[in-house]
From TrEMBL:
Protein name: Terminase
Length: 548
């Protein structure tokens, strides 16, 4: 060995080799594990949800004689699972079996090119794949490797098309398998707003799939995989869903020719009430829905793309089904110095909070109302709207005589103090902008004059143009869990809740409710088993992390 050259071993330790081999072997039967091991950029963005494992298992199932339809919302990893499935099947394919022949169809030519670019990038530049499987690029071995067709080193063939009509009659050939028909035809979001404009164009798609593509499948191993979201009430995707629902209703699901996996974005029984909480939480879906409403004028696009409803419910964000009605009575315990609610004899502790949306703009005083709302929250985060004052054209604070007594009408500050005292509120939140700055200043002056430093009122800046998005994001989680309770007589508030959207002229009462919930927290009283009385729960109180 020449002088100066260090001797080293490039072979990994046996323990590390064994771990890598085990991980690679798991990827043979587990598509999600394969993705997390080799396609980390796609599969490690967020935790995988249960529905993704269900889809992955259906992709890998070779025993089912049914065609597979995966109908889920946009952005919920349909195409990503498809890409992983193609790579996994080709890379793990046994040498002693006939090579696979897959077709991958998109709705546009540029999308078909990007699909193949993804495969090319992973095969040629993914060092993890190359380390585990070697150079599988057919171009290295003088095989066909173009934008439309890719033949891997093991002769597995993938063709990408942007028109389903072009799949008719295509075959591949190999020494082992001879002339081969398609093992898989993957129709990946082939329907869009352009090719489903007319009933004739929709009918063309259905006829090509049933009369041309389905007969082109291998008679023994061939399977059709349809990934999509319904874009029209009579689309091919919707026809699969309609047939599936009819089969369930008639109790003949085993005879239905499609294996259907379908989920809308909203799933009350799943984590966070959504399909993929780790990536599309409820707050994100609410934000997307408001974007459709504010941009297009209604939420039909949201319901089509995320709730699988091509015929939308309209532009309303919430409805009467999102809140409940209560008739609780309020009481104050002098001994415990705490608020309680009585609902049909069930007495439980609550904390009360106040929210205020003042309207003092000189141009809108005759139309916008100043609203003060008080809510009570119990330990289960149920929110009870206790009192609501909504007034037109009232001053910032009522006039007072030399002794400090109100002369004439009350003002916004006076109502705030009255409700704060009546319900022994923990704190309050007040909208603070230039137009309403006088309310905040008047409150500070009255607080100083009357020595009421026990009142905690916090100013908060509004969201401006994003106000409705902020309100929906803040209240949405409570409405979707049906945690908000209103009184029967809260007609105006109920109307604003049920008509929240771009066409709603005023949202002042909903905004006051939003402010009331901004800084709320649950009570820390617990009922003792022996005496059946409430005591302060010291365990639930906030403590310094330094204290053991």
């Amino acid at each position: 060995m020449p002088k100066g050259v260090k001797k080293f071993n490039i072979t990994p330790p046996p323990k590390r080799l064994a771990e890598e081999e085990r991980a690679i072997e798991i990827g043979r039967t587990d598509l999600i594990a394969f993705g997390k091991l080799f396609l980390r950029g796609d599969f490690c963005k967020a935790d995988s949800a249960p529905y993704q494992y269900e889809i992955a298992d259906a992709y890998m199932d070779k025993s089912s004689g049914k065609q597979l339809a995966v109908i889920i919302p946009r952005g919920h990893i349909k195409s990503t699972l498809t890409k992983a499935f193609i790579l996994q099947q080709f890379l793990y394919h046994p040498k002693n079996e006939p090579p696979l022949f897959f077709a991958w169809v998109a709705d546009r030519l540029d999308k078909a090119y990007r699909n193949m670019d993804y495969i090319d990038m992973q095969i040629r530049f993914n060092t993890r794949l190359i380390h585990a499987f070697g150079d599988m690029c057919g171009k290295t071995y003088n095989r066909k490797w173009t934008e439309h067709d890719k033949v891997f080193r093991n002769s597995c063939t993938l063709v990408s098309r942007s028109n389903i009509k072009n799949l008719r009659g295509e075959t591949a050939a190999s020494v082992i398998g001879g002339s081969q028909r398609y093992n898989r035809v993957i129709l990946d979001d082939i329907e869009n707003e352009e090719n489903t404009k007319t009933l004739d164009s929709i009918d063309v798609i259905k006829r090509v799939i049933t009369n041309a593509i389905y007969p082109a499948l291998d008679v023994n191993s061939g399977r059709l995989i349809f990934n999509g979201t319904p874009v029209h009430p009579t689309s091919f995707c919707q026809s699969i869903l309609d047939g599936y629902n009819k089969a369930i209703k008639e109790n003949r699901l085993e005879d239905y020719s499609w294996q259907v996996i379908t989920y809308a974005a909203t799933q009350p029984d799943m984590q966070g009430g959504v399909l993929w909480h780790a990536y599309y939480p409820r707050e994100k879906l609410d934000e997307i829905r408001l974007f459709y409403v504010d941009t297009y004028g209604n939420d039909s696009g949201y319901f089509q793309e995320y709730e699988l409803q091509p015929q939308a419910k309209g532009a309303k964000v919430w409805g009467a089904e999102h809140y409940q009605i209560h008739n609780v009575s309020y009481q104050w315990d002098e001994k415990l110095h705490h608020s309680f609610l009585n609902w049909h004899g069930d007495i439980f502790p609550v904390n009360c909070f106040l929210g205020c949306d003042p309207a003092t703009d000189i141009n809108t005083r005759g139309s916008d109302r100043s609203v003060i709302t008080v809510v009570a929250v119990d330990k289960d985060w149920r929110i009870f709207v206790m009192e609501e004052i909504s007034k037109l054209s009232i001053p910032e604070i009522g006039m007072r005589d030399k002794d400090g007594n109100i002369v004439g009408d009350k003002g916004v500050v006076d109502y705030i103090i009255d409700l704060y005292d009546a319900f022994h509120c923990k704190n309050g939140t007040l909208e603070d902008v230039a137009m309403t700055r006088g309310v905040w200043q008047s409150f500070q002056a009255e607080k100083l004059r009357s020595d009421r430093y026990d009142i905690v009122l916090r100013p908060e800046k509004p969201a401006g143009r994003e106000k409705r998005n902020k309100i929906v994001a803040g209240l949405g989680k409570h409405f979707y869990q049906r945690k908000i309770y209103l009184r029967q007589e809260h007609f105006s508030l109920r109307h604003q809740i049920e008509n929240m959207g771009p066409k709603l002229g005023h949202d002042d009462e909903v905004e006051a409710l939003f402010f009331a919930t901004r800084n709320m927290y649950v009570p820390v009283l617990e009922k003792t088993e022996k005496s059946n009385t409430y005591v302060e729960d010291l365990v639930s109180r906030s403590r310094s992390w330094i204290v053991r």
